[in-house]
Amino acid sequence: MTCRVAILISGRGSNMASLIEATQAADFPAEIALVLSNRPDAEGLERAKAAGIATLAIDHKAFPDRESFDRALDAALNEHDIAFICLAGFMRVLSDWFVERWAGRMINIHPSLLPLYRGTQTHRRALADGVLVHGCTVHFVVPELDAGPIIAQAVVPVVPGDTGESLAARVIVQEHRLYPQALRMICDGTARLENGRVVFSRGWNASGALHSPG
Ligand SMILES: Nc1nc2c(c(=O)[nH]1)N[C@@H](CN(C=O)c1ccc(C(=O)N[C@@H](CCC(=O)O)C(=O)O)cc1)CN2
Ligand SMILES: NCC(=O)N[C@@H]1O[C@H](COP(=O)([O-])[O-])[C@@H](O)[C@H]1O
């Protein structure tokens, strides 16, 4: 059964593009049915239109508060019969009401090795701390920001002379590989949420490492 997915963006949309490309594969257990942005000028909307995907912009600035924006978001997702949400550079903190409504059916990619560097400016903060490895994480979304159960992670080295830009460029390559892998594992049941933790079947995890459970 193919899962109807919406991708929520706020800007460039390169992770959105990697998800759209991956779901073109005949055996991919999900289809991208909608790309939705809280910013009408988001570059990613044009990329989605060019890929033949339905798009929608709902400007958060047009709403008096966070929850009324989230209710409009929810209504639009239901109108498009969406079953699953991928946040991809979606820069709005979602209300508890919305997150609980989509619990276990909404994931996000974050540019750090969570739980390190929750929030924003992750690459600059990692460099400031002098860490030698960094990376990205795909996780289920819970009300507490960037605190949801982890589905997949990818690691990159921090090399001498790295800037926020050079580190971001190294991490985004891994994001584009990891997010489609994580979505496939959730939609084909290889990875599932159980009692607030992600459990894997068939002994694999999305970081490509074979781990022998137990
Ligand atoms: N309830 C949750 N909402 C969201 C989560 C989450 O885990 N729980 N993940 C984020 C994504 N994200 C980090 O990955 C993130 C997005 C936005 C912000 C933020 O501070 N946003 C500001 C506005 C910034 C702007 O509009 O440019 C805000 O919403 O006031 C931090 C982290 C998605 N939502
Ligand atoms: N806090 C969320 C966050 O920082 N997400 C990050 O925003 C970028 C969006 O790029 P994209 O629009 O090209 O996919 C990505 O690096 C993603 O990890």
TrEMBL record:
Residues noted as binding (6R)-10-formyltetrahydrofolate in the record, renumbered to the chain: 66, 108
One GO cellular component, as annotated: cytosol
Active site positions, chain numbering: 110
Catalytic activities: N(1)-(5-phospho-beta-D-ribosyl)glycinamide + (6R)-10-formyltetrahydrofolate = N(2)-formyl-N(1)-(5-phospho-beta-D-ribosyl)glycinamide + (6S)-5,6,7,8-tetrahydrofolate + H(+)
Domain of life: Bacteria
GO-annotated biological processes: 'de novo' IMP biosynthetic process
Residues reported to bind N(1)-(5-phospho-beta-D-ribosyl)glycinamide: 13-15
Biochemical pathway: Purine metabolism; IMP biosynthesis via de novo pathway; N(2)-formyl-N(1)-(5-phospho-D-ribosyl)glycinamide from N(1)-(5-phospho-D-ribosyl)glycinamide (10-formyl THF route): step 1/1
Key words of the record: Purine biosynthesis, Transferase
Enzyme kind, highest EC tier: transferase
PANTHER family on file: PHOSPHORIBOSYLGLYCINAMIDE FORMYLTRANSFERASE (PTHR43369:SF2)
Role: Catalyzes the transfer of a formyl group from 10-formyltetrahydrofolate to 5-phospho-ribosyl-glycinamide (GAR), producing 5-phospho-ribosyl-N-formylglycinamide (FGAR) and tetrahydrofolate.
Protein name per UniProt: Phosphoribosylglycinamide formyltransferase
Species this protein is from: Microvirga lupini
Biological classification of the source: Bacteria, Pseudomonadati, Pseudomonadota, Alphaproteobacteria, Hyphomicrobiales
Gene responsible for this protein: purN
